[in-house]
Amino acid sequence: MGGARRIAGLLAVCVWLALVTEAQAQAPRAPAMRTTAELDRKVQAFLDAERDKWDYLNVPYQDGKILHDLVLEGGHKSILEIGTSTGHSTVWLAWAAAKTGGRVVTIEIDRGRHERALANLRRAGVAEYVDARLADAHELVKLLPGPWDFVFQDADKEWYLQYFRDVEAKMAPGGCYTAHNVARLYARQVTEFLDYARKRPGVSFRYAEGASGQGISISCWAR
Predict the structure, then answer these.
(1) How do residues 18-67 score in pLDDT, each as one tens digit?
(2) Shortest CA distance to 106 belongs to which of 202, 45, 204, 120?
């Protein structure tokens, strides 16, 4: 009888181990944080190394970080950038998109800047989160269907109001439209854009705190 009891006990232990193993296999696994940490290290190292080297009217470092943080805070996924230049702001936006599960569509008209941006995105490790278009934003912005939940506008200032008008009907509830160089009124159209954005029904308007002297405006749609 003692032997039978021992065998029964061993069988019970085996059944228990099998059930535990099956439960562990079926339980949801935590995200692979090491991969995220590796991306964070790679992007941050790239941004730090290139911090004082950006030309072609790229945004300052502090403004790029503001854009990154706005995307994270809003959990934005469908992101449009009007004016890539050589990709400084695009890297910040793509880095945020990698964390929200989103993607950036960015538009640049100049082939040389477009190609440099592609190289920078690859070096930063965020190219897979970006759909970089070589195109005239005057034409393409109005053709892209959206909906967008985050837009960053940093192209020709004379077209600021028109870009906003081309996109406003495609903004998702809770989406935010940002624009750079609004503290320096380069053109009458920038003033017109700001006046229009401030008065848009159902849209809150503010300036980003802590931005560079170039300024960032933020227009957010109600949810």
Answers:
(1) 433 443 333 333 333 347 899 999 999 999 999 988 888 899 999 999 99
(2) 120
The region, left, alpha or beta by phi > 0 then psi within -120 to 50, assigned to residue 101 is left
* pTM listed for this prediction: 0.83
Structure tokens, 214: 């170039």
Residue 92, SS3 per DSSP: helix
Say if CB 90 and CB 113 are below 8 A apart: no
Distances in Å between the Cα of 67 and the Cα atoms of 33, 74, 125, 140, 217 are 23, 11, 18, 22, 11
Question: How far separated are the first and last CA of the chain, in Å rounded?
Answer: 71
The alpha-helical segments, DSSP class H, found in 77-159 are 88-100, 111-124, 137-143
Dihedral sign (CA 125, 131, 135, 136): negative
Query: Does residue 109 contact residue 135 with C-beta atoms inside 8 Å?
Result: yes
pLDDT of 81-100, one tens digit each?
999 999 999 999 999 999 99
Which residues are registered as beta bridge partners of 216? Answer: 180
Neighbours of 171 (CB within 10 A): 23
Q: Give the homologous superfamily in CATH for domain 33-221.
A: Vaccinia Virus protein VP39 (3.40.50.150)
